[in-house]
Amino acid sequence: MSKNQILKVLHEKKGEYIPLEKLASEAEMSSEQVLDEIEWLRKDDYIIEHSSEHGYRLIKVPNRLLPYEIQRDLQTTYMGKEIHYYKEVDSTNEVAKKLAEEGAPEGTIVIAESQSSGKGRLGKKWISPSGGVWMSIILRPDIPPHEAPRLTLVTGVAVAETLSKECRLDVGIKWPNDILIGNKKVCGILTEAVTDRNLDFVIVGIGIDLNVDLESFPPELREGATSLKRELDRDIPGVKLVQNFLLDFEKLYNEFKAGNFPEILAEWRKLSKTIGRQVEIHKRGRVVIGEAIGINKDGILILEMEDGNLRKIMSGECLHRNQEY
Ligand code: BTN
What we know:
Oligomer: single chain
Helix content: 25-40%
Shape: elongated
Low-confidence stretches: none
Bound molecules: biotin
Radius of gyration: 22 Å
CATH topology of the largest domain: BirA Bifunctional Protein, domain 2
Distance between the termini: 46 Å
Number of helices: 10
Strand content: 25-35%
Largest sheet: 7 strands, mixed
CATH superfamily of the largest domain: Bira Bifunctional Protein, Domain 2
CATH architecture of the largest domain: 2-Layer Sandwich
Strand order of the largest sheet: 3-4-5-9-8-7-6
Number of domains: 3
CATH class of the largest domain: Alpha Beta
Mean pLDDT: 93
């Protein structure tokens, strides 16, 4: 909290020197506390210059997902009001689960610069080097457990909308939850519901390859993946993107809680890059091929098989056929 206060003052006068006494009075702290906080901020890679004559001035903010930067100017009501930040963690979903079990409120987020054991769907490992947005959100919706997968679709729509606004590229969704730019994956979503008899809580894990260097991915993943940095040929400020996402997500999640899931589903269908395509669904060593003709209200994919029969696909890995990268 004290970091937030001092940063507020430093940001308001970014580039200008502020005498220590003034910093202390405006941040409502003692001079001693201000000096301690400045030391901590420098450890977090803030560049703060000191002049014995004029005081302190903020020169540069690191392009990192630091909680006090995300919370400054955050326009949400409850998403991201509590942020747990790690430079490195095993998996933000695992940390979020523990926090949720200890009673962390809805909208709490866990965010990390890198993950050592990032989790993907279907038991896969999720490569999470620094430069990405690796984030989990704790949700406590009052819904029956079988409706929890709907939150994956809600999240997919929110991510796709945020990214479209950010980059104005061809952003879309591959069923069930991959966000693509063109034909390449830029974001994955892992929703985990914890239920007793009722739904206790849901963890929505979001992995966005923002400024990730794709060379750090294993060769077999490189071809089908991209990052925003690769697409736009510049570093993207992560804090702004996370703030925008949290706001988009909060709005959509409130709509979901208000019973407007059909409208969100309609949006998902518009963003879908899967519907209307020939797809292969891979599951437990089996492959099903057909044309994706739609998804139902629970997010189940409907395939039309070659013989004209329809088949419901609840889960599995979906590949778009005749895909050129
Ligand atoms: C997928 O397989 O497409 C889902 C990937 C989800 C990755 C994110 S990164 C943040 C959160 N923590 C994890 O361990 N996984 C999710």
